[in-house]
Amino acid sequence: TFNVAGTMQSGGVTVANTPSFRARLASNQSISDATSTKLAFATEDWDTAGAFASNKWTPGVTGKYVINLQVGTGSPVGDGNRVNLWFYLNGGSIDYGRNRDVMGADGMDTWTSTTLVTDLSDTDYIEAYVWQDSGVTKTIAATGSHFSGYRIII
Q1: Is 100 exposed, middle or buried (0-12, 13-18, 19+ CB in 10 A)?
Q2: 131, 138 contact by CB (below 8 A)
Q3: How confident is the model over 34-48, as pLDDT tens digits?
């Protein structure tokens, strides 16, 4: 329920969908062909618990979380080629999103995003990786590429 002040309450206790964070690349990042590469999100837009460090997020509170990842390449990966985004939990891959480029070499960037809903313990950590198979090194654009997450209130 919401009280008159507009804060969320459960059993008379104020609750919020925190911890939460949003980080982005500080500069473009090169991604080799057919190589899983950890994304270097060095700029924090916010981090409510100070829990984002070394390109990974440790929530500090056990709960159910929504984790988002979006990246764009500086040029198309090529018709039929892929960009995969991977979430890693405690150092191992757990889920991914995939975009197969069907636009060919029309000058359009390839944008890929994915969302994960998962249970995390207070000490779990999430990292973001990307993989592409264009045949050459590609650039992940700093502008518009981001990694974020927040706790779901249930």
Answers
A1: middle
A2: no
A3: 999 999 999 999 999
Question: Longest C-alpha distance within the chain, in Å?
Answer: 58
Percent of the chain with pLDDT over 70: 82
Higher pLDDT, 39 or 11: 39
Element housing 23 (H / E): strand 20-24
CB 2 within 8 A of CB 8: yes
Q: How far apart are CA 22 and CA 67, in angstroms?
A: 10
* pLDDT range class, residue 7, cuts 50, 70, 90: low
- Integer distance in angstroms from the first to the last C-alpha of the chain? 12
